[in-house]
Specification:
36% of the residues lie in helices and 15% in strands. The chain has 6 helices and 5 strands, in the order E-H-E-H-H-E-H-E-H-E-H. Helix 1 (18-27) links the parallel strand 1 and strand 2.
Length: 183
């Protein structure tokens, strides 16, 4: 069986999730990254395509060019852009018939979910949202312990995930700039 052909929207080398998704989509050899619009910054977009092995013919410098030229070539698109862009990108992909795998969170406002569901329903499209933390071994173990009752009645639960990447300085001592939509 040939691998599913995947396109990335977002996920450039400077993104928080791009390389992780690139690596993950290749792990089981079920997916092949074939096309992308990784960044509106031309140099970064090109550098990302080179790093990910995407041919120049399938590198796009704007979202609508990507949709128009790749919609018949792909089995799915993975949307890895900043969350505020997800709603329109997901809807546009569904409208042209491309199955969508979207990085969480799907939208910034819950009311937008109803609009996306209406679009998905009208187009009879496929939409999946990635909740990658559910796959972490410790999260699965905690779920198993709770379901089997091994921990008894849970009265309170607190989990922390340090995000030191936003505090760590680069080689010149500069702190990274956090995207405003993350705050």
């Amino acid at each position: 069986m040939r691998p599913f052909r995947l396109g990335f929207i977002g996920g450039a080398l400077d993104s928080a999730v791009g390389y992780a998704h690139f690596s993950a989509c290749r792990m089981d050899r079920c997916w092949s990254l074939e096309a992308g619009f990784f960044s509106p910054q031309k140099a970064l977009n090109k550098r990302t395509a080179e790093t990910y092995g995407v041919a120049c013919a399938h590198l796009h410098h704007d979202f609508h060019s990507f949709l128009n030229k790749e919609r018949k070539n792909l089995d799915a698109v993975s949307i890895l852009s900043p969350t505020p862009l997800h709603k329109s990108m997901v809807a546009d992909c569904l409208r042209v018939g491309i199955p969508v795998i979207c990085e969480k969170a799907l939208t910034v406002a819950s009311r937008d979910i109803l609009e996306l569901e209406s679009c998905r329903s009208k187009t009879r499209g496929f939409l999946a949202v990635i909740y990658n933390y559910s796959g972490y071994p410790m999260v699965r173990e905690m779920r198993r312990l709770i379901r089997t009752g091994k921990l008894g009645k849970i009265l309170h639960f607190q989990a922390e995930m340090p995000q030191e990447g936003y505090m760590r300085t680069d080689s010149q001592g500069r702190k990274p700039k956090v995207q405003s939509w993350r705050l």
